[in-house]
Design goal:
The complex is a heterodimer of chains A (about 260) and B (about 300).
Chain A: E1 9-18, E2 21-31, E3 36-40, H1 47-53, E4 64-72, E5 75-76, H2 84-90, E6 91-94, H3 105-115, H4 122-132, H5 136-139, H6 152-165, E7 170-174, H7 182-195, E8 200-204, H8 208-214, E9 217-223, E10 229-236, H9 237-242, H10 247-253
Parallel strand pairs in A: 3-8, 3-9, 6-7, 7-8
Antiparallel strand pairs in A: 1-2, 1-4, 4-5, 9-10
Helix pairs in contact in A: 3-4, 3-6, 4-6, 6-7
Chain B: H1 6-9, H2 14-50, H3 56-60, H4 73-104, H5 109-121, H6 126-140, H7 147-171, H8 175-183, H9 188-217, H10 220-225, H11 245-253, H12 258-294
Helix pairs in contact in B: 2-12, 4-7, 4-9, 4-11, 6-7, 7-9, 8-9, 9-12, 11-12
Classes of the chains: A alpha/beta (about 260), B mainly alpha (about 300).
Chain lengths: ~260, ~300
């Protein structure tokens, strides 16, 4: 199904505004492919906004405006003529709160396949996605049950399966475990590790331990009095957590603020 | 703090406060009783007067100047025609307008003007719509005093209600569903078609049924369009003349003979049964949706 992918993501001098309010300023960052990159930082530092730039979800907010470039492989996804619909089918997203559609388990996974005109065997594709999301064994006998009958952790894995089904190259995760209990959180974290073999994963998290456990690289954002988020430091997770270059990074990861 | 001189600093007047509470409680109870008792008396009176006159022939006969032979067949069929056509006109236009306003329209000053006007139109007296219908549909468009002219007028009357309730239903679809669908690469129309409308449909249907049940009880706009009350045929096509139940009832009430009071009461019973059934359907749909969303 998948071959080795090398397409990474890169942003160049990115600023984001909501109306006249600048939420992100001059961020430049490279995201390696087939790795897990964590975005950490205090509330309001623009982590989620940054994440949503990668699949143009900010387009849905009428007042949002973007300056700078976001490269997916060779292509600037904000260039004229790029269809955000296509971007989103190649860069999937998992949200903070599990948000399965109020449809059956099967239909949740099949939804993305249908809207993107999948030509293969629907049953097979749904089963494959559920396997990858480590949910198949739990739901194989109840595929026609409502997705909302699942537990929170199962719902979030269903959302991951739904995102995987359309065969994206990148998966964006916006605090995917923040609404889950510790056991369900561990399951999601294990899944992220497994998925990073085939997908580029970008995860926003408030949880330092989680960032340390799951990510290969970590980017630290924060904001000053103008409340515009900016990138402080980016590097291998090991280095960021043991030997950060910037003292603000150290202060944050040791829990002195944020 | 020392409790001994508490009564010097406070004057709790507990019994007075309790009496005030009782008085207000009684007033609120009285308020609801006035409504309930008034309605009950009204309904009992109507039933007592009307039930002796209710029979199958009352439903299958045309109006007559002899009370024992009078029926409301033409009015029942007229009402069915009006409601049916009104639904055909209102649902696509009303729901379409609601989808446009909620999902597509840019939220600028034009949007706000339209929004305010739709809300205001819902409060315009129905006779105004009747006169508008008379001028535009009956005369200008030469539709005559026909079923279609009546239905178009009723459509104008209930359209704001359908738009407002449909918008509420669409707005209550959680934005997380929309985001999830967009995140999978859905186009705006795919999101509307596959996520928003299926989720909003029960709410839209409930609102539409309630709007139509308002239309079925309206007499004023139809009086302006078609003052016919003594119709001895059933409309067979949209350009036929017609009458509706509220007008028929009004005509019977206005007659001097005592027996026609009973006939009118029987007519009211029929109208109420139809109205309550429509509301019951709306409630059943609403309850079914609630169950589904709690799953």
């Amino acid at each position: 199904m998948t071959t080795a992918r090398n397409i990474g993501l890169a942003i160049e001098d990115l600023s984001v505004y909501y109306g006249n309010f600048r939420v992100l300023k001059n961020v430049t960052l490279q995201i390696p492919s087939n790795k897990v990159t964590a975005l950490i930082g205090p509330s309001g530092s623009g982590k989620s906004t940054l994440l949503r730039c990668f699949n143009r979800m900010n387009d849905l907010i009428p007042s949002a405006r973007i300056e700078g470039k976001v490269y997916f492989g060779e292509n600037n996804i904000y260039a004229a003529g790029v269809d955000p619909t296509e971007v989103r089918s190649r860069i999937g997203m998992v949200f903070q709160k599990p948000n399965p559609f109020p449809k059956s388990i099967f239909e949740n996974v099949a939804f993305g396949l249908r809207i993107n005109g999948y030509r293969g065997d629907m049953n097979e594709a749904v089963e494959r996605a559920l396997h990858v999301a480590a949910l198949w064994d739990e739901v194989k006998d109840r595929l026609n049950d409502g997705a909302l009958t699942l537990s929170g952790g199962q719902q979030q894995r269903l959302c991951i399966a739904r995102a995987i089904a359309v065969e994206p190259e990148v998966i964006l995760m916006d605090e995917p475990a923040s609404a889950l209990d510790p056991i369900a959180t561990l399951a999601i974290e294990g899944l992220m590790r497994d998925l990073s073999r085939e997908y580029t994963i970008l995860v926003v998290t408030h949880n330092m331990q989680q960032a340390a456990r799951v990510s290969d690289e970590t980017a630290f954002l924060m904001m000053d009095d103008d409340r515009a988020g900016y990138l402080v430091e980016h590097g291998e997770t090991q280095q960021i957590f043991t030997n950060p270059v910037d003292e603000r990074t150290e202060a944050y990861i040791t829990g002195r603020f944020g | 703090m020392d409790r001994s001189d508490w009564t010097k600093r406070f004057n709790p007047k507990i019994s007075t406060r309790r009496i005030w509470g009782q008085i207000w409680y009684s007033l609120f109870l009285l308020a609801i009783l006035i409504g309930v008792i008034g309605l009950t008396i009204l309904i009992i009176r109507i039933l007592v007067q009307g039930i002796p006159w209710l029979s199958i022939t009352f439903l299958t006969e045309f109006p007559s100047r002899f009370p024992e032979r009078a029926g409301m067949k033409s009015a029942i069929f007229g009402s069915i025609w009006i409601i049916g056509l009104t639904a055909v006109f209102t649902v696509p236009v009303g729901v379409g307008a609601a989808i446009y306003l909620e999902e597509y329209a840019r939220k600028n000053w034009i949007y706000r003007i339209v929004e305010i006007n739709v809300a205001n139109l819902a409060g315009v007296p129905s006779i105004v719509y009747g006169l508008l219908g008379l001028a535009v549909f009956v005369q200008l468009l030469s539709l005559g005093r026909s079923v279609v002219a009546g239905a178009l007028t009723m459509s104008l009357l209930v359209l704001p209600i359908v738009i407002i309730t449909s918008r509420e239903a669409i707005r209550s679809v959680p934005s997380t569903y929309r985001e999830a669908a967009y995140g999978l690469g859905a186009t705006q129309f795919q999101v509307v078609k596959s996520i928003v409308i299926p989720q909003a449909l029960p709410g839209i249907m409930t609102g539409t049924i309630l709007a139509l049940s308002r239309a079925i009880g309206e007499a004023a706009p139809i009086i302006a369009i078609s003052a016919l009350v003594f119709l001895t045929f059933v409309p067979s096509h949209p350009l036929d003349q017609f009458t509706v139940m509220p007008i028929q009832i009004y005509n019977w009430v206005a007659r001097p003979q005592e027996d026609f009071r009973g006939i009118a009461a029987a007519g009211i019973v029929v109208l109420l049964v139809v109205l309550l059934s429509m509301n019951a359907i709306a409630i059943i749909i609403r309850n079914k949706t609630q169950k589904r969303s709690e799953e």
